[in-house]
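Catalogue entry: protein
Contents: sequence, fold tokens
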Amino acid sequence: MHKQHAQRRDLMREQLAYHTARLIAEGGITDFAFAKRKAARQLGALDTQHLPSNLEVEKALHSYRALYQHKSYPEILQQLRTEALAAMRMLQAFHPYLTGSVLSGTAGEQSDINLLLFSDDSKAVLLFLLKNNIEFDDGEWTLRIGGHEETVPSYTLNNKSGTLLHLAVLPENARFSGSRHPETHADIASIETLLNMDETSQTVNFVENT
């Protein structure tokens, strides 16, 4: 009986992951936690304690986009990554790293671009934005640095395309903490390589379809 219950629970978890992915892909939802709760309500799983992890949702989202959005999605993702690279080059003095859905490949048209910047001068990025007449909203982010949570300055910019660009400013020592991984954090050179791979892939697909 216990084994059968576990199997049913796993099936519900998979259904929730897929339904969450569909809500994100089709509804433009960017908050995974909100999308998971909405999926649970729609599937009548309000009492479940086994919602899928973000990683499970990301895998389901990759599968959904590959199946249903394979024509439009690559161009959207490439555009977001191109915008991210332009911003990173502009902010090169602060050793920017791209993180979040634009890097992982789960981003959609409504997704934001998230960059981590590094400076021991908490006002250096602020002064850079002011000096270059860049409009922004300031705030704070709570991030996990060196095994504990810290609140750091953040700035939100609105690109001409309408994409929101979020900047979080971390202390310099966080850049060498070893907590960044290639799968979740990428520097300028890595994004340039990624974009070249995207362009090559799109060219191959175009040739194969003509």
Remarks:
- Helices lie at 2-27, 32-42, 54-68, 73-90, 101-104, 124-131, 188-209.
- Residues 140 and 153 are 5 Å apart (CA to CA).
- The chain has two domains: 2-68, 73-209.
- The longest strand covers residues 148-158.
